[in-house]
Amino acid sequence: xxxxxxxxxxxxxxxxxxxxxxxxxxxxxxxxxxxxxxxxxxxxxxxxxxxxxxxxxxxxxxxxxxxxxxxxxxxxxxxxxxxxxxxxxxxxxxxxxxxxxxxxxxxxxxxxxxxxxxxxxxxxxxxxxxxxxxxxxxxxxxxxxxxxxxxxxxxxxxxxxxxxxxxxxxxxxxxxxxxxxxxxxxxxxxxxxxxxxxxxxxxxxxxxxxxxxxxxxxxxxxxxxxxxxxxxxxxxxxxxxxxxxxxxxxxxxxxxxxxxxxxxxxxxxxxxxxxxxxxxxxxxxxxxxxxxxxxxxxxxxxxxxxxxxxxxxxxxxxxxxxxxxxxxxxxxxxxxxxxxxxxxxxxxxxxxxxxxxxxxxxxxx
Length: 365
Ligand SMILES: *Cc1c(COP(=O)(O)O)cnc(C)c1O
Description:
Blueprint (H helix, E strand, L loop, with lengths): L5 E2 L9 H6 L10 H17 L7 E7 L2 H12 L6 E5 L2 H12 L4 E5 L8 H11 L4 E5 L1 E2 L4 E2 L2 H11 L2 E5 L16 E7 L10 E7 H5 L12 H9 L9 H16 L2 H22 L15 E5 L6 H10 L2 E2 L1 E2 L8 E5 L6 H14 L6
Parallel strand pairs: 1-12, 3-4, 3-5, 5-8, 8-9
Antiparallel strand pairs: 2-10, 6-7, 9-10, 11-14, 13-14
Helix pairs in contact: 2-9, 5-6, 10-12
Bound molecules: pyridoxal-5'-phosphate.
C-alpha cells in the first residue's frame, strides 16, 4: 500500500507525526486524576490560543464532532424565553437554523444566497422590525463557499440591538482573527480537527462565564447540555466518558500550535499555501468562486471547468496523492474546494501545484 493521500478537505486534516504518536498514550479512566489534569490543561490551552482571561471566559469540552459543539452552544445558551436570529449564507448557517427548529427555539432566519456577503442593511431592518432578539447566531468562516464573514459590523449591530452573539468558528478557530473583546460575542464553538490539527472526536465551546451561568434551564437536551459539562469540568470531572485518545492528540496539537507561533503564524502559513494553490489554478484557467479578499485563509472554492466533472478532477488528484472536496448543495456540480489545513510540507505544496496543472490538462512548465 502506498502512502495515504494528503487531505485537502476541510477537516479532518493530515496529522503530524507528533500528534499521531500522542494517540498511543496510556489507557486512562475518565474518573482518575490523570484525566482531570489532561482535561484542565486542554481547557486552559484553548483559552490561551486567543489569550482569553480565564476569569471571564471558560472552555467546555465535548466528545463529538464540530456540530455537537455548535448544537450544544445554540441549544444551551438561548434561554427558554429567548429569541434567536440566525444569519444564513451557507450550509452551516442553515444548520444552525435547523438546530433552533429541532430544539423548539423561537427564531427567525435571515437567509441570503449562498456565497454572498452578509447584507448589513437587511440585518438592520430585521433587528429593527422583527426584534427584540436575545441572541444572534452566525458562522465565521462559511466553509460552503470559503467566505470569511466580516464579524465586526455584525457584532456592532448586535450590540446596538442588545443581542448576544453565538459564533460557529469551527473552521476558523486557531487560524483567523477573532475579536473576543467585543462584548456582544458571548460564545463560539469549534473543533479539534480543523485549524488546530487534532483528530476528530473532541469539540468545544468557549463562552463568557455569565453566559454559561445563564444557560437554558431546564436544559433542552441531556447529552448536549453545556451547563452540565461546564459545572462538572469546573469541578475537575466530566458528566460522560470523553474520548481520551482524542484529548491526548488535542493536547499535543495545542502545544504544536503554540510552539509554531499561534494563530497568526498559522494564518500566515495557510495564506502562503493558498497563494500557491491559486497560482497553479489560475495558470490552468480556473477561476475562484468569490471576489478577491472575501475568502478565508483556510479554504477557497473554485469554479469547476465546464468540460471537467468533479469526479474526474477528484480521482485524478487522488491518484496523485491529494484529496480535494466537492461543492455543497447548489454548488455540487459547479464548484470544488481546497483547504490548506494540516501537516503539509513545502515539497507537498510543490507537488500539489504540479498535480493541479496536470489534472487540469496543462503540463507542468
Ligand atoms: C466543519 C464545520 C462544522 C462541523 O462539522 P462536523 O462534521 O460536525 O465536524 C460546523 N461549521 C462549520 C463552519 C464547519 O466548517
